[in-house]
Amino acid sequence: MTPITHTLTKRLCAAGLLACTALPGSAWASLDPFQSFTGNVAISTDGFGSLSNAGVISASVPLGSTVVAAYLYSSTYFTLGTPAVTVDGSAVTFGPRVPNATACCSLASFRADVTSIVAPTINGGGGGVYNFNLAETALGNNTDGEALVVVYENAALPEATVGILDGFASVVGDTTSINFADPLDPTEAGFFAEMALGIGFSCCNQKSTVEVNGLLMTENAGNKDDGVNGSTNGNLITVGGFDDPLSPVNPTYAQDTEHYDLSSFITLGDTSITVDTINASQDDNIFLASFYVSGQAGFNEPPPSVPEPGTLVLTTLGLFGMVAANRKRRRS
């Protein structure tokens, strides 16, 4: 099994704890890298929203997998309060409120680490779809719903990178770059590059445009696909998930699942993928973007640097040679 390389970027700028500037060569992004994992890894995402404030949210994880990390997001509107949620009866502890400073309606999101709740159910389980009972016990219908993100490892999986970006995408334009360690060949057998978005407070033809490498992928990202009570505040959420088919290129509003295949936008030899979003209505909150891509990649930063075994051996031999030569000179 390929070892997992795990990096964490704290969202200090969104919390107001750090003055943030643009990374070299990329636009400043409000949707910030939170976690990335490289190795024999994959990701499951799912969403849920309901006016009853209770239901089921799920994860799809194959047999023999081990959960590396699991996170629950909550999307709120017209409130400054913090949601209260239980998963299988266990209370969830959310971090700070992350408001979308560029949108209307006090839109915000919250993130909680639920690894300790989710992992015991999945690890050692029979594989497949795992259902978790979810209940919202505060804020009522000022909560549009939740997103569950589960990252897992399995020796049978190909080497890949999972990236989780969260916070908020600026409604007036936001950019994310995925930078790869090796040139890409989208025609290679087994190649994949997928993205899933989580969007709150969206329905009724409210939508965002997404371009990949300067080409239009969709102008209909949005809607309340994971809300079970129609076009009503309190369940206006959509999350590209494991049970959603990949959207066609330039889908209609009804066809757009917020789950995308980026490979057709990649040219042989590319070493990066650029994703641009904009929300013309300025009233949707893209609070989550997850990526599942072949090989080693970095998000808004260079890919992780892992020395090749041969390079490591040569470097070690070279150091031993230098030490031996110095000892010989001292004897002389």
Q: What are the secondary-structure elements, in order, as H or E?
A: EEEEEEEEEHEEEEEEEEEEEEH
What is the strand tally? 21
Largest sheet: 7 strands, antiparallel
Give the averaged pLDDT, no decimals: 87
Q: Could you say how many structural domains there are in total? A: 1
Global shape:
globular
Give the termini separation: 49 Å
Structural class: mainly beta
As a whole number of angstroms, the C-alpha radius of gyration is 21 Å
User: Strand fraction band?
Assistant: 35-45%
**SS summary, helix count:** 2
Salient structural properties:
single chain; 332 residues; mainly beta; seven-stranded antiparallel beta sheet; five-stranded antiparallel beta sheet; 9% helix
